[in-house]
Amino acid sequence: xxxLLLTEFxxxxxxxxxxxSRLFAGYLLGAxxxxxxxxxxxxxxxxxxxxxxxxxxxxxxxxxxxxxxxxLYVINRLVRALLWAPIVLTMVPIALGISDALESAFxxxxxxxxxxxxxxxxxxxxxxxxDDFTRFLLHWMMHxxxxxxxxxxxxxxxxVLTPMTVYRSHPVESFLYATRMAVAQGxxxxxxxxxxxxxxxxxxILGANALVFAFNMxxxxxxxxxxxxxxxxxxxxxxxxxxxxxxxxxxxxxxxKNFGTALAVWDRLFGSLVISERAMxxxxxxxxxxxxxxxxxxxxxxxxxxxxxxxxxxxxLKRSTEHSSPSVNTESNNVY
Length: 336
What we know:
mainly alpha, 14 helices, globular, transmembrane helix, Sterol desaturase family protein, Fatty_acid_hydroxylase
């Protein structure tokens, strides 16, 4: 176990060198540069010095909520390594199952193209679309299914947003997202294998999908931040950082809006897209819905307590409804 823990701590330390991690140094530096420029434009004459002070506001980074983000990042990684990582689904059996199912249903399909540029472009795009849509769909379900919402509330209880807030989640939610990734990649690889054959590869930058790399370089870490960067008309197609901040808003009119990660088209299809406005004033967290997610123990246990309370409430309501229904005296009325 000691070796496992040391390995996990080593991987956490190497996250800044891994382009598949949101904490990759390039993504953080890109977000910092964009954050300075956007905030400096908002500060006007006070310029870059005021922007830097605003970006590194101690009231945000040292807030009780932010400190919980940091703690959950470390503890969730250890919980994953010790408990659920060995049992999570993997992509390979799903990909093989999808490919075999397609061949059984439609017969052998010779490669539709042997042009490497076409194959690589198509596979890169398919991976990106499957990943982005399944993220949207699971996120939508986390809000719409009461059982899942109790776990997702841990993420939404953040009262300030920092790039570390993306790791503020309950282990149950983390397990579901890891399973989602295996399913998404399995479907993408299985379908691509059926249509393009074994010569599959993607456009990558330092080992990361080129489209994902570009999205992360263009300020994805500002989604969880206090930098209000809006994209104007592009927000009908892509989710801007400010649009995701709207998703975290305590304003009831923003509840269940902007579920998307990169593409806004899914929200448009589901009727949940909200376009940002200039000078929006947002407060983050659950507001009056928050019954306490202030430390690691509460973040881990509160969902189970809420589920238990909800179940007891439903049981009590059902029992009271049954007892309040008019009874029938079968002996006097001869009801058969």
